[in-house]
Amino acid sequence: MKLLWIGGSHPRHLHYINTIARAFPLSGAVIEIRENLLPQPPEGLAEVDRENFIRHFGNREKAEKKYFGDQPFPNCPTRKVTHETLNTPESVDFVRSVDPDLALVFGSGMVRDPLFSALTCPTVNLHLGLSPRYRGAATLFWPFYFLEPPYAGSTFHFIVSEPDAGEIIHQVTPVLHPDDGIHDAACKVVLQSASDAVRLLEIYAEKGAWVTRKQKATGKNFLASDFMPEHLRMIYNVYNDDLVRQYLDGRLKCKTPNPYRQF
Known about the structure:
The protein is of the alpha/beta class. The protein has helices at about 10-20, 45-70, 90-100, 115-120, 140-145, 180-205, 230-240, 245-250; strands at about 5-10, 30, 80, 100-105, 125, 135, 155-160, 170, 220.
């Protein structure tokens, strides 16, 4: 099986594909070089929001180092791109040279034409969020903001032209520990997703297909512009990044997800 990956360059993205590549070697990769994990706080923030912003993204970088360490790029023919050069004729030419039987997507910008149309093989996206409830951007942040930490999960789905809307193949919710903060939960989602991806590919190699479920038109498609530093007050000033403990102790009442699984 010739496997193509289209993904990002952050440690979480590379951990995912390196885990897969140990069981299913890659035939090619298109890697988008992503933004710095430590963005600068926007100008004009109140001091509380500036402190929360630095704490939030600093903790994200620490968590990625803790859970994923240093990750090399996959050992296969590779095209490195930026957000602007992902969906270009040059990427199309590279994909056609690989001629994959199956493509995986995780951590790149949205795949659009002409690249989208060039992916004639089944193409599976790993979306960090439980679709359709949490679609779009920052969808491991919003479950915490809306006091739903058990909804920090992921969705494997076929890609379509609409963001995170294709038929669902499999969903992941990790086992959480009372000491987990928001970034621990996010990293555990990726760890479990990488492990589950190997099992999904084993099923595909054996059966040639998965049993999928169509998405219902409920939930919200979050935009990157929906996030404001002021939202971090809920996580840090109200709950001191202790939402998982309060949920597990029964002090935080929220719905429990019913993820769709292949196994």
